[in-house]
Structures
1.
Amino acid sequence: MALKYSRQREVIKENLMHREDHPTADMVYMDVRETFPNISLGTVYRNLQLLTDLGEIQKLNVGDGVDHFDAKTFPHYHFICSECGSVIDLQMDNIDTIKDIAGVNFDGQIAGHITYFYGVCGNCCKKTSGLQPGVSPV
């Protein structure tokens, strides 16, 4: 059965495609309300889940108790700032070989991995201690 077109779902997806901040459902809801003032938070949640199930967006669980969403569905890595909580895409080479390393002492078959990097983002480094981003304080 073909999925019925929904302008609300399309606006939710477009909102995500133009963001780099990996928003929560509440953040998407606040933005989408500008176009659809009567949209419910439940409608936003249902459409985000549907888009996730369809593989058109991805849901991230970064450890803060709420789901974040990303329109980039290709394999890539994320950095989570322990100070401000921002979720940032990392520009780096693919580390898929980690599956081979993990599989050395594992008798099953590893299909993939999710890797998050944690620390303090460049903006927070500048604000809190004058540390230079990317430079170890040692």
2.
Amino acid sequence: MILDDIVEATRERVEKLKQKEPLKSIKDRALEIASKENEPETTFYSQLQSPGIHFICEVKKASPSKGIIASEFDYIKIAKEYEEIGAACISVLTEPSFFQGDNEYLTRIKQTVSIPVLRKDFIIDEYQIYEAKTLHADCILLIAAILDKQQLKEYIEISHGLHMNALVEVHDRDELKKALEAGASIIGVNNRNLKNFTVDITRALSLREKVPKDIVFIAESGVKTAEDVLLLKENRVNGVLIGETFMKSNDKGKTMCELTKLL
């Protein structure tokens, strides 16, 4: 399964990073950054908690299922456009081997926009959480399919201690139960089946009723039409994470208008 390959590549990447900079060093740097900050007034969580349905727009060059999505990849320009068209937050792929992401994309985008930025990667080690803080991420992605409940709990606590939110991604009821028991305050349901890459937005709808109202609920993948957005809003979904639809659009403002025309 592709997820296993990504996790293995990530494990190798983290080990190489540790050889260049030990855990203690990057942890100290992250904690120093956090100690100099005030608690942010606007967070990833607060942006999505307010009434209505919100858009997390993704900066993504490629994916394992689609290959190169954006041959011309001016990620700074893309991020600026997202902020201008009303995105609540921006998701940035930093995974290099399968998504052609880069840490620099996140750091430079964060320097450019004023809205919260999510580091979208495959976090399997606390090292990556401290690294995310040194990149100035506002939120990290934690994938329930590759972490046990204790890891999820510890990683959520580490992220909160660094003034970052954690978006916990789930695919089914068992993963959702694990995420809730670990203390997740933001749940993202990935509508994509990681075994065969088929997409079904009703996956998110079927899990919404299992999540308490005070927890931010996000639908990821497969949101392509105004009808999709309206259906999700009517079912109390707080936000949608959209990548490919925006990345393939030459007029992101027009695309946003199309997606929101029924709201």
